[in-house]
Amino acid sequence: MRLLMRIVKIVFGVIAIGLIGLFIWLYTSPPELLRVGSGYAAKIVCSNVFIAGRDSEEVLAVDVQAPGHPLLRLMDVSVNEAEKRVHAALLGFIAGNDAVYHEGLGCSVTPDGNTPAPLNVAHSAPVAIDETVLWPEGGKIESDPKVAALLSDAALTGPGMRAVVAVKGGRIVGETYGGGFSKDTPLLGWSMTKTVTAMIIGTLVRDGKVSLEDKGLFPQWRNDQRNDIRLADLLAMESGLAFNENYGTVADVTRMLYLEPDMANFAADQPLEADPGTRFNYSSGVGVMLSKIWMDRIGGKPAALAYPGNVLFGPLGMTSAVMETDAVGTLVGSSYMYATARDWARLGLFLAHDGVWNGNRILPEGFVAEMHEPNRTSSGRYSKMQTWLPVRSGEIPADAFFLDGHDGQNVIVVPSLDLVVVRLGLTPGWERYSPLQLVAEIAKATAAP
């Protein structure tokens, strides 16, 4: 019996020492996967608390933990309201990562532990919205009963729906919102931000500050074949650069978003895997590199940070749009823009009208056409200008294209029908939801008799 007790003590001692060693290792040298998870948790909570005004515990439970990796269920977050900082860590103390809020610029992850210098962006005075005037000039809408009936069908709007806005003939003809969300809630567009980045570049093309044929885009490319990559190759996702877009592990995309302070240079450092213009490779690294390219052409970070508001959001009457930066102040043009569903609809309407707003041409002629022109290498799936193209089923016109974001974010633009449908939500890919049937039904309901 004494021998048995001695063996039991030894076994428990070994287990205890092993557990202590494990916790010391996790605390001092945490695996990158854990730090990706804590960076993701900190970022999502920070943005939703300080931009969208949501409850941190709800965001952690619903947005971060419920649809995510099992390890995310062990993440704990703390919100420092005074410093506008969110800290996240496994079990509250392992593999910590922070996100910091900047007024007007949202939250940035600080993976190296250094607090970024304050970022300044000029703010326009808030514009009062006249609720007696029809949208988009004001805030009034006149819902079409046939569209309202479609938007009440959960099968059409899809699981996890948070907002749907339908625009026909330049007016909102129907909208609906999920529980806890409203017309005033800014929602993350994820990769829909890529198309917004393309629009911003379009304004620089208009003004002659960039050309789609520009090469030699990064200093580290000058001594190899990467120097031949054109701006047009980046916009069409045909750069030839290596970039792993797998979100299930520590891939290039998750490393960039949650472990790298300077995202653009991390993406630009990737090697060439194919000749430029010969292979389609969807890459969020491209979106951040594009931001770095156009920001460098503006001259001075404050001017660059204010530029989207001055040339795009302001003229379109978008009062809610927030584009977020990385830790060095480069806008994360691949993934991080928040706006209300109605403001996402403004962007869609702007594209449906060929980059013209209130009679003023903001994007150069032919630029929006590139958004529904297939690139050379994606078998018709992706355009030349940071948009996706739907499978041609005959249910929607051939000129349709859409902004597409992670977990079910879409703005579908059908210029020939003067139709825009915004559908936002938390709808992971395994739900197999597509908004195209919703768009087709709205198109039928709003067709001229």
TrEMBL record:
Keyword Transcription regulation included in the entry's annotation: no
UniProt keyword annotation of Lipid metabolism present: no
Lineage, highest ranks first: Bacteria, Pseudomonadati, Pseudomonadota, Alphaproteobacteria, Hyphomicrobiales
Organism: Xaviernesmea oryzae
Organism superkingdom: Bacteria
Keyword annotations of the record: Membrane, Transmembrane, Transmembrane helix
Record protein name field: CubicO group peptidase, beta-lactamase class C family
A Pfam family matched in the record: Beta-lactamase
Membrane-spanning parts: 7-27
InterPro entries recorded: Beta-lactam-related, Beta-lactam/transpept-like, Diverse_Enzym_Activities
Residues annotated as domain Beta-lactamase-related: 163-424
